[in-house]
Amino acid sequence: MCGIVGIVGDYDARNYLINGLKSLEYRGYDSAGISVMSGKEIMTYRVVGRVNLLETKIPSLINVNLGIGHTRWATHGEPSFNNCHPHKSNHGLFTIVHNGVIENFHEIKNELIQKGYTFYSETDTEVIANVLEDEYGSTNDVLSAINGCLKRLHGSLAIAIIFKNFNDKLFFAKRKSPLLIGVGETTHYLASDALPMIKYAKKFIDLTDNQYGFISKNEVKIFQDGIKQRAKYTTRNAELLNTDLNGFPHYMIKEIEEIPSCISRLVDNYVNNGSYCFNKEMIETLRKSKCISFIACGTSYHASLIGKNYLESIGKTSNVYIASEWAYFPKFLDENEVFILVSQSGETADVITCLKILNQTHTHPSITITNTKGSTLERDATYSALLYAGVEIAVASTKAYNAQVALLYLLKSAIINDTNAPFKLLDTNNLLTDIIKRKESFKEIAEKIKNAHHAFFLGRGLDYCVALEGSLKLKEISYIHSEAFPGGELKHGPIALIEENTPVFGFITNKRISQAMRGNFSEITARKGTIYSFVTKENAIDNDTFVIENYDSELIVLATVMITQYLAYYAALLRGNDIDKPRNLAKSVTVE
Ligand code: AGP
Q1: Which of 48, 54, 56, 360 has the CB geometry, 3.0–4.6 Å to 31, for a possible disulfide?
Q2: Based on the domain organization, do 46 and 160 belong to the same domain?
Q3: In terms of residue numbers, what domain contains 8?
Q4: Are residues 384 and 502 in the same domain?
Q5: 298 CA to centre of ligand 1 in angstroms
Q6: From ligand 1's centre to the CA of 326, what distance in Å?
Q7: Is 587 labeled as catalytic in the residue annotation?
Q8: pLDDT above 90 covers what percent of the chain?
Q9: What is the CATH number of the domain that holds 501?
Q10: What residues contact residue 20 under an 8 Å CB cut-off, 6+ apart?
């Protein structure tokens, strides 16, 4: 969702802001803008549309050293010029960009209108700019104004602020939404994540909730409730933040084909000389707990379903909750229940809300599984385990899902100290490489289904978990309406939707359910639906669409899900869609 960049110092601000916004495009957005300060003048450029368009509006020769930029994913008000950020306060004292949602903005807006303020947009951001001005009116001090603003406003905000009278300081505040400071030699940076800053900053400061302050060419000052805070520096691995396409036409296909290397990297990070090297206390906590529950959204929720199966196979009780549901109806099934929060971005607002609830209990340990070092979920959980999958740019998650599943497999194996498991996991790469080699088959299938209005995915057991993820992937990027069902549920309702040529993707990777699934396939063909069957050798019959080598029933999901990722990719490609930036979706869902 919305992305923020900011800069002050010697480096060319135009260059940083434009390139920075481009690197945040993957988060999802509909409009973009920047404000830069030259002398005492603040110049603002805004567009509805892409950063490339914004770039054409900004004079190439402007020489500025302070500025802020924003990509907006509309929450309050449609994507329109007036709603684009940056927004300024009525008397032009404050110009700001914002990521988050102000919950009491109607109330505060009305208060401000009573005081004579006028609003030119539908956004909650314009309210923040005017609250800052209002607070400044009574304190005459920018930092006190920001602190006052944080107290008056409820909800989430990461803001970068230009104050009209200072052309050498860039102010900021953070609550719930992500914001990082990048420390360069004679320049300081702000951004929603490390990507825009990785080329310039040597170290980073991950701001925590309710911190505010300013950066200048040579200094960083952080405060919380009026009290100066010590900056905690962190670093990032530039290799994991590499965004080169390396010759691939889209990030999605590049990321699918990185899956084998992600698996190798995971094993490298968590297994040393045949022994697991997870945090010992974390593994002990998992061992002791009878009940381990997952909380996640979307693709991470689907990976958690596989995790639940893994944990049940070693005798644990396990549940999987959708974060936005659990947040409103929290359930605790056991006094020693441990919660695993799975999130690629580590910044998903619904999951963060759940973590806050868990942390308030002081009794239930939390483990975050995330791909994003320094993210809120990574920092605020009792324990965390990184995915080391490398930055995922395509909005549709692929390699992060496989890394989540692989990590969950390693975790359950570490709990029972199964030292053979890492070798089995590494061996899976042969199967995955074989799938990559045969990707043209998936393009041929996509060609046949590209004009479908509906599609269905069927499976049983772990194949059903894969069906759920495959269906989500297809709808996200091809915009073909798609649903997934357990094979047995078909005749309890969904079969009513099967018409002539309705594509149904069916999976059989387990002998136990082979016959039952064949029955479901017959029910579909009897209604003239078209079955595309993906089956293991031992379950194959003539005319199956795609046959996979027999493989470990717990790990084969890593291969079958890859098939669904390719299917979605090619269907979207053939329909001419914007594969890496599908409509309406955001990579990092930072609002509830
Ligand atoms: C994945 O393809 C989706 N874009 C989406 O469902 C995503 O998995 C979900 O928003 C959760 O994100 P997270 O893993 O970053 O928490």
Answers
A1: 48
A2: yes
A3: 3-236
A4: no
A5: 5
A6: 17
A7: yes
A8: 89
A9: 3.40.50.10490
A10: 5, 7, 69, 189, 191, 196, 197
